[in-house]
Amino acid sequence: MDEIALLQQQLAAVQQQEAALKLSDHNVIDLLLKLQQLGKLQVIHTRTGKQFLTPLQVQREIADYVALHGGRLSLTELEKLIDVDRTHVEKQAAALCRGSRSKDGYYLVNNGEELLTSWYLDGIMEDTDVLLQESGTTYIGDLAQQFGFAVDYMRDVVRTRLGSILKARERDNVLYTDSYVAAQKARLRGVFTAVTRPVFVPDILRSFGFDEAVANEALTELIQTKVLMGTMRGREYVPYVFMAAQRESMYSFFQQNGYLEHARARELQVARPYDFLKKRFPDAVPLQESVVSRALQLQLEGAVEASVTDNTFVDVRLLLPSALPAGDVALLLGMSPALEKAGHVSKAYQIAESYAVSSGFFASCLEKFGEDATAKASRTAAQQKSSAVQAKVHESRQEVEEADDSDDEDFGSKRGKKGKRGKGSNKRDQEESGGRSGKSGKSKKGKRGSKRGGNTDDDESKSASAQVSIVPLREEIIELLVSWFPAVEDLEGDDDFMDGMASYLGPKIDELYSTALTKALSSIIRGDAASLRELRKVFEDRFDEQFTKLLILEKGFNKLSMHVDAKDAAGMEKLALVETHLLESSAVELAALVTSFMAESNSLELEGMPLLSTPNGNEEEGKNAATPVTSLSDENKKVLESSLPQSTASALVRLWTLATAGRRSLSDFTAHVPVLAEALSMPLRKLDRKKERQFIFGYRQTTLAELDDKTAQPIESKQQYALVATLILQLFFQQQTGLPGSFPRDTVAYTGIVLKAFEDSVPEKAMSIMQGLVNVTNAIVVDEDEEQKSTWSETLDAARALVLLKDLNSVE
Questions:
Q1: DSSP class of residue 292?
Q2: H or E element in which residue 159 lies
Q3: How wide is the angle at C-alpha 120 spanned by C-alphas 119 and 126, nearest 5°?
Q4: What pTM does this model have?
Q5: Residue 391 contacts by C-beta under 8 Å, 6 or more apart in sequence?
Q6: What is the pLDDT of residues 667-719, one digit of tens each?
Q7: Cα separation of 531 and 542, whole Å?
Q8: What spans are recorded as compositionally biased (Basic residues) (predicted)?
Q9: Domains in the chain: boundaries
Q10: Which of 61, 194, 532, 551 is most buried as measured by Cβ atoms within 10 A of its Cβ?
């Protein structure tokens, strides 16, 4: 202790002593500069130059001032507070940051403009966490703006303190608390659980004030964990219950309607409708823009087969739903087996995409066009022949006139000579001129003959047919089709169908008309027997057809006459009415056919008699005729008797007499036909059962078609009522006897014998229906009872249904 006290005394004494040497301020400054130059000392001068600080002291003062200002201070403020240059402040601040520990770290932010401490950042994050727990969410951008940081730096600060200081999660620069996310998820689950139809998710989120980012993630999680039974289609939420209902409705729609469009399937969120439907409907048929059922396809195929059987056509659009696209209709029709080629021939053809036209209908069309081509070719050839004859007559007249002129000139040049010499010389000159003319004429004929040798007639006919054309234009083809086929008339406004028909038939029609014209012209030019043989063949075929019809109708008439008592004067009178009708219709047609053949084969001009190739009421000849042929006029009779062999003429005139005059007996007429055939050297073909059955079936179909046509038209006269009733009675007669009947069409006076003939064999109910039709028709036609017209339609429908039945006992 004494030693210590001694040392203290010595120190106090030294301190009380005055310095012996003192340095001036300049000396001190120079000394410091020298030490700095030698690197022995580092000091920082204040801006006033009166003080200097070591770097470590600057760092201490920076740390003190930052702590004094709450852990954050700008370098500009530090520069003022410490009173040193900015460069020294920045340098020592950076050194302070580098040397600081992570716990008490220092950071330069905002491009080195501010210095702050880690505990400052922890503090603001603690404050942020307090506010975040209250609000549930906040944006990092808002925090950056609030605290004056860049967003990226603020994001880094937040992320380093998530889970420790900040009890939250961050997504896309937004902070959420767990409680906030849980609340959003709970609300979201409630809202979307109540959804029963597809909804647009952004609309729902806006309507209920959801946080979109949290809600989208939560919705995906709820769907994946099967909390919500639904799925996302883009930004649309579709609940499974709606999908099940929609798909069930799609099944139901397909089952009820037989088709489903792809557009409708897309609306129901079904991308591959065929794959979807075939699970329940394995026989569904896929098309380009729709799927159809097998039943619908079978319905179409049945209609096509029916058109093939009936030799007609069908518009399949009438059988299919109108919503089916045209391309799918064409594709479905193209799948029909009837359109597939069996060998090299198809049963039907696809026209204008939606029409199936049977080959039989096309054959009927070509047959009609063939008849028209023959008629037009005959007329054109006749006109060509007439023009050629007139030209030849004109040429011959010119030659005669030229010859007369030359004779006059020769006579004038020889005047003045002696008469005797003149006579002799004149005579000799005439002989010489005659000889010369004869030789020259022969030589000219020889030259013409040599030029026309070989296939001269064919060349002339081809050149003539090339100059003259009878091929109809498209409009004419359509007009002819409309006039021949009532079914086509209904489609006259359908340009696609008409164009398709014209396109298909066009090449064949060109060939038909060109061939017919060439044949007609060559026949006229050659004058050979080929055309006559062809004409005779056509005549014999048509004669056989007409005579077969007459014989079968005679069988039906005889069947009816068996039920009429010969003592019943009224009944016999009605029977005679039916017999007269048969003679005036079928018998007269047969007589006119024979007369046309005789006139055409013998080049006879008969007034009002059509060509054999042009039936009455058909083709243009029939249109030009004022009325059909009903009798043989006296003028035509004289022409026949003067131009034909006596046996042929008498047989033909007798045939007309039996058909139109005398006691009017159908049996006498048919008995005379073999006599006429013998006069024409034409064998009669035997009527076989197959031909008879075909005619009977065809006659019934023709009668039914005519009945449908007449009933479809508005009735404007009393005769139309009688005509419809006659058609019904003809069907009724054929239904009971199996034989066709032909009855008068302008009266119903004969109906009593028809109904009386079957009153014992027909059920009473059926007979009352037929009797009702006859009574109503009589009241309208005979009594002119206008009130009965109101019951006509109902009575007609009942009678029509009756004659189509197979068993009349089924009539209720």
A1: E
A2: helix 151-161
A3: 85
A4: 0.41
A5: none
A6: 998 898 899 888 888 888 887 888 888 889 999 999 999 888 888 888 878 88
A7: 16
A8: 414-425, 439-451
A9: 23-99, 120-241, 258-351, 529-687, 693-810
A10: 61
